[in-house]
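ok new one. same drill as before - structure tokens go in, u give me an amino acid for every spot. 39 of them this time. try not to just spam alanines like last time pls lmao
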């Protein structure tokens, strides 16, 4: 696996975990508070 492929897989995993987090009850409201400060 090349470095770029590895980075793509990592980004995909982060995206999937973020989607799962947003699906949790209260997840979206928590994200709206936490998200901007993480950017």
């Amino acid at each position: 696996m090349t470095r770029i492929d590895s980075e793509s897989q990592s980004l995909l995993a982060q995206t999937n975990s973020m989607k799962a987090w947003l699906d949790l009850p209260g997840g979206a409201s928590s994200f709206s508070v936490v998200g901007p400060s993480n950017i």
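The chain is about 85% helix and 0% strand. and btw The chain has a mean pLDDT of 70.
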